[in-house]
Amino acid sequence: MFPPPSSSCPDLKALLSLFGVSGQIREEIPGDGSLRRFFRLETDIGPLVAIVPAPGGLFEARCWWLWAKFLYRKGLPVPRPYFFWPEEGVIFTEDLGNWHLEKAYQLNNRVDLLEEAVDILLHLQSLDPHKAPRVFLETTTYGRQLMVFKESAAFVAIFCHQGLKIEVPLSVARDLYSLARVAEASFDQNPVLLHRDFQSRNLMVKDNRLRLIDFQGLRLGPPAYDLASLLRDPYLDLSPSLEEDLLQAYLRLSGRPEAALRRQYDLLALHRHLQALSAFVRLTRAGRRHFAAYISPGLKKLKDLVLRDTFTPFSSLKSFILDLPVDASSLTT
């Protein structure tokens, strides 16, 4: 007997029947960091997953559907989008299973899948953004405003104030603003499609190949952000030598100027670390305790990063980060 969804969930069997498909719920799938709900279904056309939006999430569901159809048509390895019921925001899509890149690398040392992830990123960045859907979940582009108000401000408010209970000196805040300005100045006039959460838990493994998920927040932006999200992912905690090998592979295959790409990579990796650390604290304090394990590795990566020459001009920020306590256990209470 399959367990029914809660009364707050749409009748998934009834919705499926509207598309001429019969099926039943097998299980609810944990949503990791998402407020959406996911159900695995057995149907007469094979296993599917139903994605039920969070309260107020109809636009997010529409973004997912439009981007999924576009990426699938362009040959990106994303789950096949089957059906969408816009009134409820419910999506029926291909079931990719439960195995993702983090598990494949940590348990089986699948470096080949990391190389495949770089190839997928290059494929995504090769698409013409002018032919992509003009629907954006938050902002059209990744730029200074998002860096300051979504990444730096979250680090100050959630990681420092709420988590560590420490004040951030004005000189550090000034460095964070200057850093965003300098990072934005590194962007060229040809933005690429940017996932903004291109990390190992958003790369599922099915039939020994990677499949990209959680792309509803796609926007336009610089190429190095997603690259840094993957290669400096705290879930993976890659060695510096492997990070360098994969960065070299990206440079060789993309043909981008090395010096400019490396500088942009450093600047955006820092913003990515600020975002990830605040997210780990927020999610842990919200009851998703498994994220606590990634706070200390993420902080160590941030400390290692600011030792690079790129951050010499930002001395106040550099000193502040290096002085942060390595033991982050107090952040989760």
Description of the structure:
47% of the residues lie in helices and 13% in strands. With 333 residues, it is α+β, with helices and mostly antiparallel strands. The chain has 2 domains: 83 residues, 2-Layer Sandwich (Phosphorylase Kinase, domain 1); 232 residues, Alpha-Beta Complex (Aminoglycoside 3'-phosphotransferase, Chain: A, domain 2). The strands form 3 sheets. The chain has a 5-stranded antiparallel sheet with strand order 1-2-3-5-4, sandwiched between helices. The protein has a two-stranded antiparallel sheet with strand order 6-9. The chain has a two-stranded antiparallel sheet with strand order 7-8. The longest helix has 28 residues. It is globular. The N terminus is likely disordered.
